[in-house]
Amino acid sequence: MSAIRNSVRAGFLGRAFATLSAANAVSAAVEAGRRPRARDLKELGIDPASFSQVIR
Fold first, then answer.
1. pLDDT average, residue stretch 7-27
2. CA distance 11 to 15
C-alpha cells in the first residue's frame, strides 16, 4: 500500500493537489493583504523576488 501512496503523491494527482493548494494559499494571502509564502509562489512558477514588484 505504501508504494501506491508514494506513486500518487509523486505522480500527476500529487502535483495537481499541490498546485491547487498553492493557488488557494496565494489567493487567500493576496486577498488578506499579506505576502504569500515563497514556496507557494515557486509551486505556481512565480518568482518570489519579482512578486513584490507587482502593482495592484
1. 86
2. 6
3-state secondary structure the chain: CHHHHHHHHHCHHHHHHHHHHHHHHHHHHHHCCCCCCHHHHHHCCCCHHHHCCCCC
What distance in Å separates the CA atoms of residue 18 and residue 29, rounded to the nearest whole number? 16
The structure's pTM equals 0.75
Number of residues that this document lists for the chain:
56
Do 37 and 25 touch, CB atoms closer than 8 A?
yes
Which whole-number Å values give the CA distances from 3 to 8, 26, 52, in the listed order? 9, 31, 40
Segment 38-56, tens digit of pLDDT: 999 999 999 999 988 876 6
